[in-house]
Design goal:
The protein has 133 residues and is mainly β. Helices cover 4% and strands 45% of the residues. It has a five-stranded antiparallel sheet, with no helix packed on it. A three-stranded antiparallel sheet has the order 3-10-7, with no helix packed on it. It has a two-stranded antiparallel ribbon with strand order 1-12. Strand 5 and strand 6 form a beta hairpin.
Length: 133
């Protein structure tokens, strides 16, 4: 197994997507992305299932609801993250607060997330660990 550290200047860009076509690739940098496979919402929670495609700087992206105009909708929610090491599937479960109304839920037209295009692999400082067979 080889572990490659990253270099990152901390500059982020806000990107948006609609729910029209799933699966959808969500680029995080020039080399890596998350692929959103499914997203289900109801009045209690939202469940997003995705996987990594290439190198990304964080395991779990934050999905921010947006309306038709691309404006961020701020809802109180708690989030559970699950990473299945066998399949590579990442499941994000957002539990809405009880105060969320059906009208607010229906205003969700898509989501925003942060991408970082200054992310670089630091191959010079990579380390390889020999795994026991």
């Amino acid at each position: 197994m080889t572990i490659v550290p990253i270099m990152d200047d901390g500059h982020s860009e806000l990107k948006s997507f609609s729910l029209a076509n799933l699966p959808i690739r969500l680029p995080k940098n020039d080399d890596g992305a998350f692929v959103l496979e499914s997203l289900e919402m109801n009045d209690e929670k939202m469940v997003a299932v995705m996987h990594q495609d290439g190198p990304v700087s964080i395991m779990n992206p934050e999905l921010i609801p947006i309306d038709q105009e691309g404006e961020m909708l701020r809802f109180d929610a708690s989030v559970d993250y699950d990473y299945d090491r066998e399949t590579g599937k990442i499941t994000l479960t957002y539990y809405w607060e009880e105060s969320l109304t059906e009208e607010e839920l229906n205003n969700i037209a898509g989501f925003s997330y942060f991408a970082n295009y200054d992310f670089q692999l630091n191959e010079e400082e990579a380390i390889t660990i020999k795994l026991v067979e």
